[in-house]
Design brief:
The complex is a heterodimer of chains A (328) and B (850). Chain A is built from six helices and 15 strands. Chain A is of the alpha+beta class and 328 residues long. Chain A has two domains: 126 residues, Immunoglobulin-like (Sandwich), CATH 2.60.40; 160 residues, C8orf32 fold. In chain A, strands 1, 2, 3, 4, 5, 13, 14 and 15 form an eight-stranded antiparallel beta sheet that branches. In chain A, helix 2 crosses helix 5. The longest helix of chain A is centred in the middle third of the chain and has 15 residues. Chain A starts with 11 loop residues before the first strand and ends with a strand. The relative contact order of chain A is 0.25. Chain B is α+β, with helices and mostly antiparallel strands. Chain B has four domains: 83 residues, no CATH class; 317 residues, no CATH class; 64 residues, Dna Ligase, domain 1 (2-Layer Sandwich); 310 residues, no CATH class. Helix content of chain B is 46%, strand content 13%. The two termini of chain B are 59 Å apart. Classes of the chains: A alpha+beta (328), B alpha+beta (850).
């Protein structure tokens, strides 16, 4: 692609342990789940190994690739259970994406095609890649507030990639990270009003803003490396799943931006899945019969290869049936 | 039966007939003139179009009174049949009676032939478009359709991408909303491809018309609708991916709360497929299964009447309680035939319509024979320019459909508002579609003024239907004509309170098959019957219980009120009041111990007032609700009898004694008739056994209570010093309540004392109201059910043993009897729970986790 003169940076290898536990008040007689917990090779990502363990006997287990190119695993359990434990383990290498040195000066006009012409092949390619990410999606409706907010933050006549980064930083500065403020079901407009939320909220909010002004934007689900305080050991399970945004930058392509941390995506991000919004890429969803109230515990540990000790993850396969999802 | 009326009245001569019809026509022409729209009946000069003449002449030759009585009978039929359509926006709109204007829309066969060709071609095209969009997407890659139009459409379903539809048929059932422009040309204004509704109502309209005007349909060569439905049935059975098995097809409904539930049950009944709800189906091992009382049975094809996004809480809307978790994946793998395929809503997008002519040339190599009303997707610059300068002649719609915003008519807006709208469109043109505004045609409707028949003009639109058949599509020769309540309406919509008409396509020659009928598929496999779904079994059980409970209540209230009226038998009055209380029909006021002081008003209210908690009216209401959900399993007569009873005019808040007693007579007779239908008009399959079990268990509840009350009456009398109460206390009330007078009087003429009637009420195996009769019936039904479903459950064991002991030995003393009746009451509750756990509980819905 044009505007990319930097040499590609080096690969960094990580191990991720991602555990999800559903504990039910009563027995679940039947459950059907979909896991978006299998990373795939991408431009700046190589998957060496990826395993899913489930603590129950599975009556069905199938894998597929969805419309957005993500791998998913469907599984069903038909023995009564009160505890569902899903362990995802993966070894993945990532490198820092190339940051553009130049891009289009954005004039405030939508990037969507203004005129459909059957012979316009470049336009067709653009539309095939981007049209799904320009329109409303189930969890991201059109929001006039988001659009005005975007216009206020994108209007300075600089190259688009710089403005996108500025917008990413603006969210980081204007919004407060507050896990108590929202839930999975909190409408986007509330996040705009309270200016509080978590990574999922900030990603969806930035997507709403970008789509509002005609910039294709998609939702990314995955992990980010956290840094222990100097001298402190890495705490197992203290990380979380992460969400960020990719925006379309003409002349460059998809550009990874993390509004929760106010920066561009680096070699410390592992991508699990991409989609229009959270609903397309929920790491583990399911429909269960019975169960009553449930509690959910998620723990994530992302460890650089340099810190890996022998035997750290020998406990990986202690649970029931394991599913090798990738072995490369 | 109505009297056999001849439409060509004897008393009128040919000339009179002619003059009556020309008066009718002239009146219509006068009122209809001046509209800048196509008139279905009249030529511009006011003369009737030839294909209407036979109908107008027949109408003119009929006495207005005859017509009125026909109309009344048609409307009565709609009420009796409980033909309903729910209007969501109207709080009173629940279960609104179906609105039918009895004058059909008549269309000539030649005109229909070309329309029919166009509809079949359009269905073929949309099917190919769907297969392409959820597969190779050549249309998008080649620039035939802009990807923006597809991905921006409300109906685009990414989860359906890669669907392998059996026989590559995505679109099994198609409907088009047609309108006729002032120049007489038909245009498509909307395509219905997800779960098109109305074909069943079209069928129902024809049935009503056939009943009300049999001679008209016999005298005019009206094309029959039945071939359309057999084609649908055969096509689903033929293409169901069932391997070596016989195809099992179900009709999937969102349930009785849906606006067109009546139609769902009608279709299921007419096609012979079971009507199921999402909770009745489950996905196992990549296939869809029906939960029946005998376990899971594979389902190969689903004719669905619910929208795409509600079909699967796992992959689609997680908040849908109507869906089947995992269904999308089964459909994608081609393991189940979905009619129509999930995701087929995408081609309903108005934005697509302008691109269909090019898609038709590309995919079929044909010119599109039946185009849409001129449509511009504002995402094209040229279209946007056109919209900017012609807004007043256009209708603006959302690419996402009505849910986004309702159509905006440019002509309604002043200059400022037009400017605002243009600005709104220019801000995100991809979201908007403009359509040419075409005046709807008008057709005659019957004006119901008494004594004078008059025809008025109203706006009409036609919903036409096609089903996959053979290599192409078969079009229904007719359809659902929708008529607006006023003449200048710009849209027709049942949701906006419009009415409907039957549509008569006249065949060219007498008794000739229409030339456009597709070949029926050959080598069709028979459709097999499914086991009884668990939900159906549960509803049948409750239908049995509610029917019997209502009958018990009606008998008890009737008896109590008339005893109270005559004050003749003191003991009986006290006992009956006690029973009314024990059976839960009235509560006693605080501190009151004397059931005889229940006010008459409370009894009347219990018998008639719909607000009285768990009174007769509410029990009948429950019966109606359960019956409605079993609509597809009941015969017409059974349904109508139930519907009449449930909607009886006596059920009101301020009943009085006289009419209440008359009503209770009517209720007892009506409920007895329902029992008759369940005996004679229903298949004795496993489902029927649940109905029977429900009835018997409920009868036992009342019987156990009545026997307990009788025993305490006798014990009380004994305590009061009456010697040998068992032979001297009269128990006529028990005799009346258990309807056992016949058996009793045939055996004795003496006093109805306990000694005299106890063996009749307890042990007489020939008395259908005796305790033994119920208990043996229940146990036999459980046994048979066990044979049908593998392993019987045991119920009423102790009571059964007691009855045997009493039969071969002696009927014990009162205290022992009292104990036995308490055990009986407990055993009834236990059995009811056992049945629920064994046969009903599998319908529990799933909960979504995110």
């Amino acid at each position: 692609m044009s505007g990319t003169s930097h040499p590609l940076s080096a690969w960094k290898r990580y191990h991720v342990a991602h555990d999800t536990e559903y504990c039910y008040a009563y027995s679940v007689s039947n459950a059907r789940h979909r896991a978006h917990l299998i990373p795939v090779d991408r431009n700046d990502q190589q998957v060496h190994r990826s395993v899913l363990n489930v603590n129950q006997t599975l009556s069905e287990s199938t894998e597929g690739i969805d419309f957005y190119g993500n791998r998913y695993r469907d599984f069903a359990i038909n023995v009564p259970h009160r505890l569902l434990s899903v362990q995802a383990r993966m070894d993945v290498s990532v490198r820092a994406p190339v940051w553009p040195t130049q891009s289009t000066i954005w004039t405030g006009k939508s990037l969507a095609r203004r005129s459909f012409d059957p012979t316009d092949q470049a336009g067709t390619r653009f539309a095939l890649a981007c049209a799904p990410y320009l329109v409303d999606s189930p969890m991201i409706p059109a929001l006039p507030e988001a659009k005005s907010w975007a216009l206020a933050h994108l209007g300075s006549g600089k190259p688009l990639h710089q403005q996108l980064l500025a917008m990413t930083q603006a969210i980081f500065q204007e919004f407060v990270f507050d896990p108590e403020a929202t839930t999975v079901g909190t409408p986007l407009i509330d996040v705009f009003k309270t200016k509080r939320g978590v990574c999922q909220d900030f990603a969806q909010l930035m997507i709403a803003a970008l789509r509002g002004v005609g910039i294709p934007a998609r939702y990314m689900s995955g992990y980010i490396l956290t840094h222990p305080l100097p001298g402190e050991p890495r705490l197992i399970g203290a990380d979380a799943t992460h969400a960020w945004v990719e925006a379309w930058c003409p002349g460059h392509g998809w550009l990874g931006l993390d509004p929760t941390n106010g920066k561009a995506v680096t070699d410390e991000f592992i991508t699990l899945a991409c989609g229009r919004d959270y609903a397309d890429v929920i790491p583990l969803r399911g429909v269960v019969v019975g169960g009553g109230e449930h509690s959910l515990e998620v723990s994530v540990t992302m460890t650089p290869e340099s810190e890996m000790k022998m035997g750290l993850d020998q406990s990986d396969l202690k649970l029931g049936k394991s599913i090798d999802t990738a072995d490369q | 039966m109505q009297p056999a009326l001849t439409l060509q009245s004897q008393s009128q001569s040919q000339t009179q007939t002619q003059s009556a019809s020309s008066t009718l026509l002239a009146g219509y022409a006068r009122r209809a003139a001046g509209a800048e729209r196509y008139d279905e009946l009249c030529e511009p000069d006011g003369s009737a179009r030839p294909h209407w003449l036979p109908l107008i002449e027949l109408l003119g030759g009929t006495r207005p009174a005859d017509i009125e009585s026909r109309l009344a009978s048609a409307q009565q039929h709609i009420r009796d049949e409980g033909i309903t359509y729910t209007i969501y926006a109207d709080p009173q709109g629940k279960d609104r009676p179906w609105a039918l204007d009895e004058l059909p829309l008549v269309l000539p066969g030649e005109e229909w032939a070309s329309l029919s060709y166009g509809l079949a071609q359009r269905a073929r095209l949309l099917n190919r478009v769907l297969a392409d969009l959820y597969g190779p997407q050549t249309l998008l890659h080649q620039g035939i359709i802009p990807p923006e139009v597809i991905f921006g459409a409300g109906g685009w379903l990414p989860a359906a991408f890669g669907t392998k539809a059996p026989a590559n048929i995505f679109l099994h059932s198609y409907a088009a909303d047609l309108l006729r422009a002032p120049d007489g040309q038909w245009w498509v204004v909307a395509d219905r491809t997800q779960a098109p509704s109305g074909a069943g109502y079209a069928l129902e309209n024809r049935m009503i018309m056939t009943r009300a005007f049999p001679e008209l349909l016999a005298q005019m060569p009206v094309a029959s609708l039945t071939g359309f439905f057999s084609a649908l049935r055969e096509s689903l059975a033929l293409h169901a991916p069932c391997g070596d098995e016989s195809p099992r097809v179900v009709v999937l409904t969102p349930g009785p709360l849906n606006e067109t539930y009546y139609e769902h049950s009608l279709l299921a009944r007419y096609l012979g497929f079971p009507l199921v709800e999402g909770g009745d189906l489950a996905v196992r091992d990549g296939c869809v299964w029906l939960k029946t009382i005998s376990g899971l049975q594979r389902v190969h094809a689903i004719l669905r009447r619910q929208d795409d996004v509600y079909c699967d809480p796992l992959e689609l809307r997680s908040d849908s309680a109507l869906g089947i978790a995992g269904l999308t994946d089964c459909a994608r793998q081609g393991k189940v035939l979905m009619a129509n395929a999930l995701g087929s809503g995408v081609v309903e997008s108005v934005a697509l319509q302008g691109f269909l002519p090019a898609a038709c040339r590309f995919l079929l190599g044909e010119e599109l024979a039946l185009p849409s009303v001129a449509t511009w997707w504002c995402g094209e610059a040229a279209a946007m320019d056109y919209v900017r300068s012609n807004l007043e002649d256009l209708v603006i719609k959302s690419v996402q459909g009505l849910r986004d915003f309702p159509p905006i008519f440019g002509q309604d807006l002043d200059e400022a508002a037009r400017g605002n709208l243009i600005a709104r469109i220019e801000a995100s043109p991809d979201r908007f579609v403009a359509q040419e505004w075409v005046r709807l045609s008008q057709a005659p409707v019957l004006n119901r003024r008494p004594g004078a028949l008059q025809l008025d003009a109203r706006s009409v639109g036609l919903r036409a239907y096609a089903v996959a058949a053979g290599q192409g599509y078969q079009v229904m020769p007719g359809g659902l004509t929708r008529v607006e309540s006023h003449r200048d309406a710009r849209v027709v919509s049942m949701q906006r309170g419009g009415a409907s008409k039957d549509t008569w396509v006249l065949q060219a020659g007498d008794n000739e098959e229409l030339p456009f009928k597709a070949d029926a598929p050959s080598g069709m496999s028979p459709v097999i019957h499914t086991g009884v779904p668990s939900r159906v079994a549960e509803n049948l059980f409750w239908m049995g219980r509610y029917t019997e409970r209502a009958e018990g209540m009606a008998r008890l209230l009737r008896l109590t009120l008339s005893e109270r009226l005559h004050h003749s038998r003191r003991h009986g009055v006290v006992a009956l009041h006690e029973l009314v209380w024990r059976y839960g029909l009235v509560g006693l006021s605080e501190g009151s111990k004397d059931a005889a002081r229940i006010p008459v008003e409370a009894l009347i209210s219990c018998a008639t007032n719909p607000l009285y908690p768990q009174g007769l009216a509410q029990t009948l209401g429950e019966l109606g609700r359960v019956g409605f959900s079993l609509r597809d399993r009941l015969s017409h007569d059974h349904w109508r009898a139930m519907n009449r009873l449930v909607n009886d005019q006596a059920l009101m808040t301020n009943g009085t004694l006289g009419p209440t007693l008359v009503w209770l007579d009517r209720a007892v007779a009506g409920l007895a008739a329902l029992s008759g239908f369940s005996l004679d008009a229903m298949n004795r399959d496993a489902g029927w056994r649940f109905l029977s079990l429900g009835r018997r268990l409920e009868r036992l509840v009342l019987l156990a209570a009545a026997l307990s009350v009788a025993v305490s009456q006798l014990q009380q009398a004994g305590d009061d010093g009456a010697s040998s109460a068992e032979s001297s206390q009269p128990l006529d009330w028990l005799l009346d309540l258990t309807d056992s007078s016949g058996s009793f009087r045939s055996q004795t003429t003496g006093l109805a004392s306990w000694r005299a009637l106890r063996s009749i009420v307890l042990l007489d195996a020939t008395n259908p109201r005796s305790l033994r009769f119920q208990v043996e019936g229940v146990q036999q039904a459980l046994q048979r059910l066990g044979e049908d479903t593998g392993g019987a459950i045991v119920g009423l064991e102790q009571t059964g043993i007691k009855l045997t002991e009493w039969a071969i030995g002696d009927i014990p003393e009162l205290a022992a009897l009292r104990q036995a009746f308490i055990i009986l009451s407990q055993e009834i509750v236990v059995l009811s729970d056992l049945l629920a756990a064994r046969y009903f509980s599998v319908s529990e819905p799933g909960v979504s986790l995110l």
